[in-house]
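worker-03 picked up job from queue 'complexes'. Input manifest follows; two sequence lines, order preserved.
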Amino acid sequence: MKYKKLVIDNPQDLMFGIAPNPVKTRRGLEIGGGQVYSELNFTLPTMKINNDTIKEVQRHYREIAEGALERALELNSKGVVLEFETLLEMTKTPSIGVDLVKIMNEVCEKYYANHGLKSEIRLTPNDLREFERPALQRTSSLLEPMFELFEKGAQAGGDLLSIESTGGKEVSDNALMMCDIKAVFFALTVLGVRDMQFIWKRIVEVAEKNGKIAGGDSACGFANTAMVLAEKKFIPRVFASIVRIVSVVRSIVAHEQGAVGPEKDCGYEGPFIKAITGVPISMEGKTAACAHLSPIGNIAFAVTDLWSNESVQNIKLLAGMAPTVYMEQLEYDVRLANTALREGTASAALLQRLMVQSDIYTDPQALVLAPENVIRISKQLIKGDSYVANAKNGALEALNIIEEALASGQMKLSDMETAYLPVLRDDIESIPDNESAFVEMMMPMLDQSSFLAKEYGL
Amino acid sequence: MSESLKKLKEVVEAGKVNKDAAFPPQLKGQEGASEWAAKCLEEGINPQSILSDALIPAMEVVGKNFSENKIFVPQMLLSAKAMGAAMHHLKPFFTSGDIKSKGTFIMATVKGDLHDIGKNLVTMMVEGSGWTVIDLGVDVPSEKILKTLDENPGAVIGLSALLTTTMTSMGDTVGDIREVNKDVQIIIGGAPITQEFADKIGANYYAKGPNEAVEYLKDFVS
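worker-03 finished. Artifact:
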């Protein structure tokens, strides 16, 4: 474990638009260098991707990039990141994905050359390995097309490399449904960590070889799944908030392997990673309402460096195509934040305080994201001698914070929610700090047909 | 209703699988669904009555509580497990014909889609309502569904898709099924799905959640 000290240890220094280790890009964005940029995410409307539709697919992506950058230009944008999160067919057949990167990069280059508008493409291939069950995390032939897309996509103009890797998801899915926090720990701090070490070593190598930027990895399939399940009232929100904290230990491994940020937008573990490592992050909140309900719409902005809409289909709205419309919404959000930053520390702090205070006590998932709580929890997330211990310490601190907010009367939760707090504490405290001891404890309790231990080096 | 049958219904509702189960804490050390089901049989209670008067009504209560946001999924899953523990004792009576299943339900997440949480919830609730469920898993091609339908004539099909991008695959799957079987009942569900979409692709019904699927199936008991 690389990080033993917080890079940001004062909540006041945890601010949107400012990261101690900013990332400079090819066309001149300085992410975390004093201003927030928009990160637009988009996808196709409901349609097939095959040889018959490929021209239409390409037309959509060109239209998305053109529409978004034209709108950004009209709004005097200081810079934009376009996240290209590939769909299954685009990764399985890497040439499809690579051609789409080329198309969007041409558009980015045109707006940069003609108007000086800075933009970059974040290339996020989907993790194909989960299509095999149980997944062959290290030996799957599906790693080949994934890395071909990373390599050739980077060469075609994908400057920021990211992924939402899925190591440990085989165990996590059931663990979330059963609210089995010990199995969640196993999925994230044993399987997830081990897979992150494996996959990010390779991604960083690709980035370094091609002069590109290794961004980061979101625990989307874990902590965001928990958030969505909690929003559907399938599982308690207190449980989802603890899953988020545990996911930090897994996602930070990308940075231990050499990723420099920006973190992925759907990784709400970003604020903790920013405090611990100083890398810039991306977040999504109220302007991602096109993709999912969020209990953290404002507070998500509080310490972010890129501001994202998660994903929107390229469909027609009254004002234009949906990605263009979302570009405008993101730009107004970041314009406000950047005005506060320009006015100085007091204005930025005021805006941040309003964002935080408007959400903080409405949901435990928001509570843990308040800057002072991020620092409190982050201190615990690095003090142990193992990933398991770090997650345990962080999760227990988050439980302390939730219980304090309940005791003070600032946060109110239903009995159905609070009933889980002592159960969670007991379960977390029963986890041994040592990974081997934890593995030995968990293996008999897990459905071992659902994952291949040897594919994780176990 | 006999005392044992009442107790069986109660423990299934509470999610008490057996005497050793730690959940729910207030029933620690007490007998669970497995023990009460065995007791019912020992008392000579008709197996069909155990299913129809205790287990299925218990799961109906659980399903209702869930749809009214009175319990979370883990409680529902524990009730399903409790029902499973009781069903273990009833299994021989299905084989002998003393208990009749309400029908067969074939469930799958469509090709190209790996999401199984919603599918699993539907599977569990439909099973709890007395149907025999064949869960084909995720990323399931049409051919596999058709083969299973061939082996289980009269079955109802349930299809799940979570992504807008896999909705087209759902349309293809329904199309493939309709080519060989125009009459089979097809229920579809998933975050981006609507009744309009169901109508468009030729499915019979869009179930918003597991309970809606269970309700709809009541009309098709074989």
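worker-03 released lock.
The interface with chain B takes residues 43-48, 87-88, 130-131, 133, 173, 176-179, 225, 229, 233-236, 313, 416 of chain A (CB under 8 Å).
Chain A has 18 helices and eleven strands.
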